[in-house]
Amino acid sequence: MTRTVYVNGEYLPETEAKVSIFDRGFLMADAVYEVTSVLDGKLIDFEGHAVRLERSLNELDMQSPCTKDELLAIHRQLVEANGIVEGLVYLQVTRGSDGDRDFVFPSEDTKPTLVLFTQNKPGLADSPAAQKGAKIISIDDVRWGRRDIKTTQLLYPSMGKMMAKAAGADDAWMIEDGHVTEGTSNNAYFVKGNKIVTRPLSKDILHGITRAAVLRLAEEAQMEVEERLFTIDEAKEADEAFTTSASAFVMPVVSIDGVALGDGTPGNVAKRLREIYLDEARKKAI
Ligand code: PDD
């Protein structure tokens, strides 16, 4: 099926959508993005994603292409046009193109590029991958120092997923100065006793929208949460582990570097948090 996509004010068939070869998103990864999930044809955590997008744009002195209400309308229009019941909406804003390649930012009157498209993912909430749990490996974190900005510099996370695949695993957690930062496209947690441990927010990790919701829900459910640095060895000795992201919600982790966690199946805390998160996400979806 040919998707309807959005490019700079127009809804077009994906085969007709065009962006300049001089676009700074293409030449320099001078671009930020958001991924919002869709359940029951409605947007999950839209507000959080819109606020984080604004923050990413501000941090990079990039112009906002439109208002939050306009963005919401575009998301909804694409979900409807493509008949998405469960899936994702991908949004990207670049600094645009001034018709040449130059390291210096173009003048203020260069319009940002705004692109959105949907990804149809039937069974996203009831995913077999979540029932099985993910096997992860650990790799060095060699990304830049502003991981709190959601830029499209995704080459290393892509390489990380390929390293995981080559090792027969599903994903990778990254390590810097002896401590786990996050997963290639998710935030990382382990559970020991009745405590959930995850790295605190800083410039070292993306401030996950799913993370914020899951930590709030965990506390509401009287689970103990500790935000601190942790090592991969601590995670390997944990009872269970999991990741959070808009694209996979709460994903149980069943092994790290080949070491099985607990009995090697998804843990109860991860399963419960996934359930609670999905339940609330559906209720609050817009
Ligand atoms: N990735 N950390 C990184 C490095 C990420 O790329 C993501 C999301 C997260 C989780 O953030 P959130 O809960 O807001 O999705 C953490 C998206 C899903 C992606 O790149 O497809």
What is the global morphology? globular
Distance between the termini: 26 Å
Portion of residues in beta strands equals: 25-35%
Mean pLDDT: 97
Low-confidence stretches: none
**Attached small molecules:** N-(5'-phosphopyridoxyl)-D-alanine
Q: Tell me about the largest β-sheet.
A: 9 strands, mixed
Query: How many separate helices?
Result: 8
Give the helix level as a range of percent. 25-40%
The SSE order reads EEHEEHHEEHEHEEEEHEHEEEH
Give me the secondary-structure category. Answer: alpha+beta
**Tally of strands:** 15
Radius of gyration: 19 Å
3D architecture notes:
The protein is an alpha+beta fold and 286 residues long. It has eight helices and 15 strands. Strands 7, 8, 9, 10, 11, 12, 13, 14 and 15 form a nine-stranded mixed β-sheet that branches. Strands 2-1-6-5-3-4 form a six-stranded antiparallel β-sheet. Helix 6 links the parallel strand 11 and strand 12. Helix 6 crosses helix 8. The model has no long low-confidence stretch (mean pLDDT 97). Bound molecules: N-(5'-phosphopyridoxyl)-D-alanine (PDD). N-(5'-phosphopyridoxyl)-D-alanine binds next to helix 6 and strand 13.
